[in-house]
Amino acid sequence: MKAIKIVKEGRVEIADIPQPTIKDGHVLLKIDYVGFCGSDLNTFRGLNPLVQLPVIPGHEIGATVVELGTNVGPDIKIGNRVTVNPYSNCGICTACKNNRPNACRYNETMGVQRDGAMTEYLVVPIQRVIMGGQLSSKELALVEPMSVGFHAVDRANVTDSDIVLVLGCGMIGVGAIVRSALRGAIVIAVDVSKEKLELAKSLGATFTINSAEEDLAASLDILTHAMGADVVIEAVGRKETYLAAVDAAAYTGRVIYIGYAKEAIPFDTQFFVKKELDIRGSRNATAKDFAAVMHYLKMKKCPMEQLITGVYRVEDAQLALESWLSDPGRVFRLLIEF
């Protein structure tokens, strides 16, 4: 069967690998769509320290069940559309014992620490399969990245009395905007792309700030009467946004970091103390977050055509990543169709 492999920096190859065989407690999936995410782009750029090349990327999955192993239970049927929880967990580390398996110390995410889903077929343990209901395979391929943003909002305990500043309006930032708006918060979206900010507004952002054209601190002061944001969600992973998050947070505010910064960052830590900030990381997503995203998508209020920037054939995976790299501000999600 065909598989997409990132074999070295800047190079994708289409490999022919054996089709996996069904196992006890597993199901065989025919992959329909898989999304390229920011971690895949960083792998392609040679900037993902968690990846050892070559690797099969992909963990944003829309698929169809084509074969059932033994002991999978009666609820899943051949022909069901599904997505997949792409994370692993050990069950014995402190995160797992604290019922937060999304942050497992030994997690191996598909397409990052282990081979991913950009193959024609995939065998998956039944525990990782999430039934798609009436959602299409394209919609299901958007569930995982949006769930990461949903999880950050949960980590921040966002309520309808909060002002939430979201730094970065890619797919994960979009997830944070949507869920914050669903909870009734005032949402301020920040990005350097006019197109992304327009979409953020349509998805529930009350205000937008183009940080390439406006002074972020001055604009935020106007919108918050110089009080700052109750919650700041960083969904970029750059030094500038990591530092801006602390500056933008209100006294006793909550700062949530999703993005992985690629360098050491020198903080002026006095503001951690003076503002008595709650600073939290947000990693991956939980089953509850997946369910919340799927409930939102079932409402059919999500502008799918705007979130999916392009759909590419397997043979054009190299072109897909090159096009994203050449104009990152334009791209929300690129899907590979199998």
UniProtKB/TrEMBL annotation:
| Documented EC number(s) | 1.1.1.414
Per UniProt, the keywords (alphabetical) are: Oxidoreductase
Q: What is the protein's species of origin?
A: Sphingobacterium zeae
> Is Kinase one of the keywords?
no
Q: What class of enzyme is it?
A: oxidoreductase
Q: Name one GO molecular function term.
A: oxidoreductase activity
PANTHER family given in the database record: L-THREONINE 3-DEHYDROGENASE
What InterPro entries does the database record attribute to this sequence?
ADH-like_C (IPR013149), ADH-like_N (IPR013154), GroES-like_sf (IPR011032), NAD(P)-bd_dom_sf (IPR036291), Zn_alcohol_dh (IPR050129)
Could you tell me which residue ranges the Alcohol dehydrogenase-like C-terminal domain spans?
Answer: 172-295
Q: What is this protein called?
A: 2-desacetyl-2-hydroxyethyl bacteriochlorophyllide A dehydrogenase
**One Pfam family this chain carries?**
ADH_zinc_N
Domain Alcohol dehydrogenase-like N-terminal positions: 24-130
